[in-house]
Amino acid sequence: MAQGNLKVIGELLAKHGILVAFIIFMIVFTVLNPRFITSDNVLGVVRSSAILGVMAIGVTFVVVSGNLDLSVGSMMSFSTIVVLDLHDKIGPILGIPVMFAMTMALGALIGFLVGYLKLNSLIVTLGMLSAIHGLTLTYSGGKNMDIADKDGTWFSIFGQGEILGLPVPILLFALLAAGLTLLLSKTPFGRKVYAVGGNGVAATFSGIPRARIVFYCYLISSFCVAVAGLIQASRSLGSQNTVGQGLELEVLAAVILGGASLLGGSGTIFKTVIGVLILGFIQNGLLLIGLEFYVQYIVTWVIIILAVWLDIAAKRGQLWSPIA
Amino acid sequence: MSDQKPVLTLKNIVKTFPGVIALNKVSLDILPGEVHALMGENGAGKSTLMKVLGGIYQPDEGQILVADKPTILRTPLEAKNKGIVFIHQELSLAEELSVAENIYMGELPLKSFGRVDWAKLYSDVDEILDRLNCGFKAQTIVGDLSIANKQMVEIARALTVDAKTVIFDEPTASLTDAEKIVLFDIIEDLKSRGVGIVYISHRMEEIFRISDRISVLRDGEYRGTLKTSETDHDELTKLMIGRSLEHTRPEESATKEEITLEVKNLSCGDLFKDVSFNVHAGEVVGFYGLVGAGRTELAETIFGMRRKTSGEIYLNGKHVEINSPADAINHGISLVPEDRKGQGLVLGMNCRENMTLPQIDDLTVGNLTAPAAEQDIFQKYKEKLEIKTPNWKQIVGNLSGGNQQKIVIGKWLSMHPNLLIVDEPTRGIDVGSKSEIHNLIRELAGQGYAVIVISSEMPEILSVSDRIVAMFHGEIMHTFTSDEVTEDKLVQAISGIYENDSAA
Amino acid sequence: MNLKKTLVVSTALATFAMAGAASAADFTIGITQNNVGVDSYQTTYEKAFIAAAEANDKVDAVVLDAGGDVARQIAQMEDLIQQKVDAIIIWPTNGQAVIPAVRKAFGAGIPVIVTNSNIAAEGAEFIASFSGPDNITQGSRSAEIMCDKFKEMGIEDEAQIVQISGQPGYTTAIERAAGFEDRLPEVCPNVTLMETQPGDWNREKSQQVMEAFLVKYDDIDGVYSGDDNMGVGALNAAKAADRADDIIFVGATNFAVGYEAMERGEYWGSIYQSPVDDAEAALKTAIDVLEGKDVPLLNYFDTPKITQDNMSEFDKPVF
Amino acid sequence: MMKRTIFAKHLRESAIWIFIALELAFFGIAGEFLSLSEGSFLAPDNMLLLIKQTVPLGIIALGMTIIMINGNIDLSVGPIFALCAIVLLDTMTWPIFAGLGDWVIPVSWTLAILVGSILGAINGLIVWKTGVDAFIVTLGSMLGYRGLVFLYNGEQPTYHLNWTLVDIAESTPLGIPLPILIFAGCIAFTWWLTKRTAHGRNAFAIGDNRTAAVNAGIRVGPHMVWNYVLIGFLVAVSSVTFYSASGSVNPNDGMLYELWIITAVVLGGTKLAGGRGSIIGTVGGVIAIQLMRKGLGHIGADTAMVNLVIGSILIVVLYIDRQLNRKGEQELKA
Questions:
Q1: d(CA D315, CA C83)
Q2: Angle at Cα B439 formed by Cα B437 and Cα B440, nearest 5°?
Q3: DSSP structural state of residue C63
Q4: Hey, are the CB atoms on D136 and A304 less than 8 Å from each other?
Q5: Fold of D40-323
Q6: How many domains are there within chain B?
Q7: Cα angle at A214 between A210 and A219, to 5 degrees?
């Protein structure tokens, strides 16, 4: 029965569609430019995707819990600027924890507003996007922040160092991905995040403290932002106030590409990582075959729509929406 | 009646979905001026059939005849234009719009340039509302109405078009007995005007009260049509589930001495006031009342979902403060909520995950979840409650209503509560599952659980309860023992007119 | 930034004490900047401008920021016209889109001084003067710096370079790229410009672009970046790939990071452009116009070449 | 209880105007002390200017209101705004229109508006036919349409200064600037559409309860497409109004517009989930935002301050709105 086949293919796509797309994509680009698949390039792409990836992992928690986070970009600028400033003022050993505390305080504020006060997360994080940008500008006085002694600091290890031949940003990315995969899919907390995102009311009726779970998700997200800020700061040892601008949408695009539903209750860290890598390789691949940078906008557009469309088409068993 | 031409005929309707035959050669004819009941267990194909009639699905095979003319219904609007009108079970209203706009949704009367003719709209609607004796106006915002009045708005919709066939899908699910009477009057009125009525319900007593003929579906197949006057409960049940049911009889009371729950002067704003009662171990206490009498709100307050404004709760003699469901669970209280899909289940999660959700913190090895421990619980209650699901991975949203409800019950039984509260345990559940759940509740009491059952169905309340608390306007009117209670007394009590001579 | 507030508050209080809302100074000059906060050049410019205005008793300043949004800038122009300031200084977000607004000010009799980045030729008749760097010359000079270095190294006939340009659509980015691309073949006809990609004035973006270049091209001898911020991003990428030693980096708008990289010998050269000079020149031009002095239409301030060889002649940039 | 609800309802509906009044009072007084300007902030000229400055965002926000009442969202208005401007300015230089002289102006206007409507229709069709959430669809086209903007003319600004065009755009018939008249026309039209027509009422019905609307026979899909056409059309009108007066468009123009517009619409009382909202409220919302920007500039606040204040105000307004919507202490905790 043809419909039966469609269903099998549909289920396959629903489960592994993003992976299939990823593999096809890699093959096509390798044919177009063999350099694409060299270990140097792959490593380079993963390294430069690490910052986006670390943030996307955090945002996955927020999205699975049924909320949005549009403030991660401007929050990342904030943590980058703060840690660079503190590096010279109180030294990296003190500066890094202080930066984490400040960033996570912002995350806690958002978590409080969305979790405990039950305010709409889209608007809250939109407001925070603007407010945190203002905060960053006030903090830095609008100036670029740079570390004075760039060669003499060990601080560069997070962004530029290598351990066992692997760049540290990739290690941090992998470590965080592994740890948070464990947290999201193998612990009671993770289960509660899915429950809260899947049906917040039913979760509350099951004795799960919805507000606290949402709060923790934002805290995790801000922790990841702080890690991203650390990598960013260490990588360039200096930064502008707008370093993270626009990243919130790229992060969201990666999470959506990974198949998380914006309604909450679905999505995994692994799929988000694939989503991040796809975005990274698109950008890099198009650059390598010599296409103008703006072509990547159009390609990303098509890929996002196709990925999400095929995903829900597989779930409902028909390609076109049944809405009349 | 039999020589009349049917208003609507279905001939050998077949509808398949990938892997499933939802309807297999179903035939049906609806005569003018008759109430034709459609029965069947959940999953029997009733709703698919209705969607075919409503123009939402296209049948793969077979014919629909409207007034003997073959017809293709492509959209809901086409169905409506052919005089087929639905009264939906789940209220299908836009809360922010006026009553009039809801009643004429999709076909507002127009002037030039697509402008709405408000004057005509309001006067037409007010006329209909007068006919139905509604206490509200065309301009009233639907969100401000009570549930029963919202149902009236749904019904009023049927009267706006020249309806030939009106399909009622579980219309009494959220109505009280008094409101049902109004509904049945309306159905009579429609009948007398030659409208054919399809009436879908799980409630036998309603079916026998108002229907003329009954058609039964089972597993997507048509099982026959009976004249109501010539059949009885047993025959119908057999036809529906393929076997006969053991009748539920209240067993011997298992009530013990010790009091599990004692509630003293509990209030929550003006939802309910000064409520006092107790529940013994091994006892089933039924709470009966109109929608809005405060029963569900009372249960939610005991469970920590609402903040009480005054009063005390004692569990096993000890005063307890319950500020959240987590507190309630820690004190051994379980609540099977009223709204299964909205409050009871995370529909996107699988069976096992749903069942172990409240105790997931305890099912761990190290800090990680322990699938083996989860599986033990799932397996135990799957067998105990005879839950029909291929395996634990099944997404709960894909189960039938009865099995979903059993997942919720299993979830709370696995917590081994002192006190189990079940709110409308069988709403929207077919006859077979219904009696299983009733038996289960009695069985639990027999094992020493204290159970509170909230229900709007009188037979249900009468058959499972040891004592019955009648509530009216947020207050307890009277508590009946199973010996003294009669249907009359109960109806009076929940309408606030019971002579409260033996007040406790 | 607090400086300005103090200025505003103190001035306002002083004037309030004396004559209600009337101004005490001879001239009120309004300025609308492109996008303060996007980089420290603009921030330093804003501070320098406020400081210069504060130091000058004759001047009160109304300082506005368009946030990079052309619609907002036009609105600010209208506000300034409505407030009847004596002169308007504009740092255009878009060299053409502001022309009608400039014409409006011209029509209202308010002289307009364009700063930093000029408006298009059609607007020339409506402005009193342009004060700022000559971005085309800057581009040409960067080309010369790079070419001279290649000649010194003896690879002027084989060198291959890439360009990282500024934010697409911005006049400064376009002019610098044009100046560079026009001049390079004149001085070094055999140097190949392999590819140009935008780095959006953003160090991180530029670093990513450079990473891709490094994978794509085995032989890169030089990188021209639209400013030092991006240049340092490219340098970081090359350092990470261990190829920094083979590449000559030339930028523009010498930032502190670029200056430091030059001190370390990693970055070859740039164009020295001080936002303080830029701001002061703009204010001075405005005052000169208001005082009726003869002001040239194009009032460029000098932006000299800076390389590792002559950097000791320059102070380290403060931004 | 009933009284309180009605009071809260009224307060909710007029909240934005109270807020505007507070802003006016604050900036009016603070302006006297802090501003260098000789004119009062509240001067009629300045207020007229204020309204004129709200026009570009305002016209788009009207369309966004209907989209959001309908239960959707459009994040792609920024690039549509830029693309329409490119069409407007570029078509004026096309050789085939060379013979028209200044009559090319209405032709270009029409073309730009056509393109805007088509881009809107594409969004709508994707939302309808694929069933993908509008947020994701328009997030995608926000990128994709921006790509088209760049594709058109690379990184160069598109530029054509036609003084006749500028003079038309800056004319003041009846003493009122033309953009304000266009804005007023759009307000009247969208108000009429939402309050008086079946299409508008259906938008509320669909946003409020989509299943009910489907069951009632409303063709939800085409309805949504028309709303996207409408917002595309209004974005184009806004773009034409604005760029006729400025004559040049950068490929980056319109960035972040979607965020400001959604903010304004939400401030104006439109529900994010759909089903509730009003055109008049949205007008209040855009005025409130422009007033904030203008006022903060007037009293000399810097960029950092403006960002901080606007972000915080948004959250505070959301909080107040939530308090007004609460059912008191009896509320279910879920």
A1: 32
A2: 60
A3: E
A4: yes
A5: ABC transporter involved in vitamin B12 uptake, BtuC (1.10.3470)
A6: 3
A7: 145
- Separation of alpha carbons D152 and D84, rounded Å: 11
The reply to whether B366 and B495 lie within a common domain is no
| Secondary structure letter of residue B115 according to DSSP | B
Scan for tokens 């090895």, then name that residue. Answer: B365
Other C-beta atoms lying within 10 Å of the C-beta of residue D176 = 14
Q: Which residue is it, tokens 């966004």?
A: D64
Contact D36 C64 (CB under 8 A): no
Domain-located, residue B3: no
Query: Considering B416, B437, B455, which residue would you say is the last residue of a domain?
Result: B416
Residue B1 lies in a domain: no
Number of A–D residue contacts, CB under 8 Å: 165
> What residues of chain B have any CB closer than 8 angstroms to a CB in chain A?
17-19, 75-76, 303, 305, 324-326, 328-329, 335, 337, 342-349, 353, 357-358, 360-361, 363-364, 367-369, 411
Are B102 and B120 in contact, with CB atoms under 8 Å apart? no
Which distant-in-sequence residues (6+ apart) come within 8 Å of A8 by Cβ?
A: none
Give the pair of three-digit tokens for residue C154.
């003896």
Which DSSP letter does residue A116 get?
I
Cβ burial of C246 (10 Å; 0-12, 13-18, 19+) is exposed
| Residue B285, phi-psi category: left (phi > 0), alpha (psi -120 to 50), beta (remainder) | beta
Burial A62-89 (b: 16+ CB within 10 A, else e): bbbbbbbbbbbbbbbbbbbbbbbbbbee
Say if B and D touch: at least 3 Cβ pairs within 8 Å.
yes
Q: 3-state class of B99 per DSSP?
A: helix
Domain definitions of chain D by residue range: 40-323
Measured between CB atoms, which of C12, C63, C97 is closest to D247? C97
Whether B305 sits inside 8 A of D332 (CB atoms) is: yes
Containing structural domain, residue B25: 8-241
Q: CA neighbours within 13 Å on the CB side: how many for B216?
A: 22
334 residues of chain D, pLDDT tens digit each: 344 556 666 666 677 888 888 888 888 888 777 666 666 777 788 888 889 889 999 999 999 999 999 999 999 999 999 999 999 988 888 888 877 778 888 889 999 999 999 999 999 999 999 888 898 899 899 989 999 998 887 777 788 878 888 888 888 888 888 999 999 999 999 999 999 999 999 999 999 988 888 878 888 999 999 999 999 999 999 999 998 888 888 888 888 788 889 888 988 888 888 888 999 999 999 999 888 888 887 777 777 787 888 888 888 878 887 777 665 555 666 5
CATH fold of the domain at C2-132+275-302: Rossmann fold (3.40.50)
- The CATH class that applies to domain A51-316 reads mainly alpha
- Residue A72, token pair as written in the block: 């991660």
Q: What is the C-alpha separation between B363 and A187, in angstroms, rounded?
A: 10
Those residues whose C-beta lies under 8 Å from the C-beta of residue D326, and which sit 6 or more positions away, are none
**D73 touching B (Cβ < 8 Å):** no
For every residue of D197-222, DSSP letters joined together read: BHHHHHHHHHHH-HHHHHHTT--HHH
CA atoms within a 13 Å half-sphere pointing along the CA-CB vector of D14 = 8
Homologous superfamily of domain range C135-272:
Response regulator (3.40.50.2300)
Report the 10 Å Cβ neighbour count for C218: 9
Cβ separation of B96 and D208 shorter than 8 Å?
yes
What the block records as the tokens of A232 is 């960013």
> What pTM was estimated for this model as a whole?
0.82
Q: Give percent helix, percent strand, percent coil of chain B, each to the nearest 5.
A: 35, 25, 40
Taking the CA atoms of B364, B366, B368 and B372 in sequence, report the sign of the dihedral they define.
negative
Residues of A in contact with C204 (CB under 8 A): 232, 235-236, 239, 243
Tally the residues of chain A.
Answer: 324
ipTM score of complex = 0.78
